[in-house]
Specification:
This protein is α+β, with helices and mostly antiparallel strands and about 325 residues long. Helix content is about 25%, strand content about 25%. The strands form three sheets. It has a seven-stranded mixed β-barrel with strand order 3-4-8-11-10-9-7. Helix 4 packs parallel to helix 6. The N terminus and C terminus are likely disordered.
Length: about 325
């Protein structure tokens, strides 16, 4: 491609063949399908539709089924509907324009050998088995390679919940009971809750077999797409020099952690300040105002001694703790 920075995938759908365009648009619509459709998003890897693909955002968080499947364990079958557990806000992106007249630039496929522009009808997919050497596949051959989507989530084993490390987690989806499956759904949810175990299984669709985990949550079921063993690197590959931690340093570090410790995670306390700042500046530009740079913070004093850094951190935490009650008293006084 002759454009160094690719534009947003969704905005290029109109340039794609009708068949491909309808497939993607259908996957992005938060409606129930007869079976779950998987597709590969730009840079996001293969997964269920709406599973964290950039630019997919719903105006409200109302639950919309994105597909249906059947959870099978032993002789028990649980028909379920799948729902996206969350949404990713569309990233703020910029398009390439012609500096001369401000027109939007188009992407083109160019042959790396002769430099000629290649139309969609003249393209064919190939697999690089050696550097610069490809074996090509027709659409029918590619279709034959894909795993047949059965819509079955086959449970293989049940593990203690704490045995599955968070590093294996990839994407999360909610499962809801489908018509006629209410009792079996509730049975599985309560059985997992009572045994404190999670279900591990596989789900085949669109050329790949997905490793999944089903766990109980607030009376319902959650399905989490997991990574395979060969998709996770060992932390032993990270160079970590051997060093000794002194007891006084450890004691201060523990005290610092305890001062900032809380019992519950409250995600509403956090927001994307960078995105908000960028959006505000862009709106200023749209209104004809100049973009102003944020004032740079003065560089913090570099502390070389670890003990000194820990002590200063504890002092700062103590000062913040003292400020909070004072603010509350001031507000109460106004009332």
């Amino acid at each position: 491609m002759n454009d160094e920075q690719p534009t947003r995938f969704g905005r290029r759908l109109r340039d794609q063949p009708a068949g491909f365009r309808s497939l993607v648009e259908g996957a992005l619509r938060p409606i129930r399908a007869e079976r779950v459709t998987f597709f590969r998003g730009a840079g996001a890897g293969a997964g269920l539709p709406t599973g964290g693909h950039e630019g997919v955002s719903y105006p409200d968080m109302a639950a919309h089924s994105i597909g249906s499947a059947t959870v099978s364990f032993g002789l028990v079958s649980v028909p379920v509907q799948l729902f996206a557990a969350g949404e990713s806000k569309a990233a703020i992106s910029f398009n390439w324009l012609h500096k001369k007249d401000g027109s939007r630039l188009k992407q083109q496929y160019v042959c790396s050998k002769d430099g000629e522009k290649v139309e969609r009808g003249d393209m064919i997919k190939g697999y690089e088995f050696q550097k610069g050497q490809y074996v090509t596949f027709t659409p029918d051959e590619l279709k034959a390679l894909e795993e047949r989507a059965t819509g079955a989530i086959d449970i293989i084993e049940f593990l203690p919940a704490e045995r599955v490390d968070r590093i294996w987690l990839d994407r999360t989806y909610y499962l809801g009971p489908d018509k006629g499956g209410e009792r079996a759904y509730k049975l599985l949810a309560e059985a997992l809750e009572k045994t404190k175990r999670v279900a591990i299984g596989q789900y085949a669709a669109r050329g790949k077999q997905y490793l999944i985990m089903v766990r109980p949550r607030h009376g319902g079921l959650v399905m989490e797409q997991l990574r395979y063993a060969d998709e996770i690197r060992d932390i032993a590959e990270v160079p970590i020099p051997k060093t000794e931690v002194k007891k006084p340093e450890l004691d201060l570090a523990v005290k610092l952690i305890e001062q900032a410790a809380t019992e519950d995670f409250q995600p509403k306390k956090y927001k994307d300040n960078v995105r908000e700042r960028m959006q505000e500046q862009i709106e200023r530009k749209v209104e004809g105002k100049q973009i102003t740079e944020e004032p740079e913070e003065a560089p913090k004093t570099k502390v070389l001694d670890l003990m000194q850094a820990l002590k200063q951190s504890l002092e700062g935490a103590d000062e913040k703790a003292e400020e909070k009650p004072a603010k509350r008293r001031k507000v109460a006084g106004k009332r």
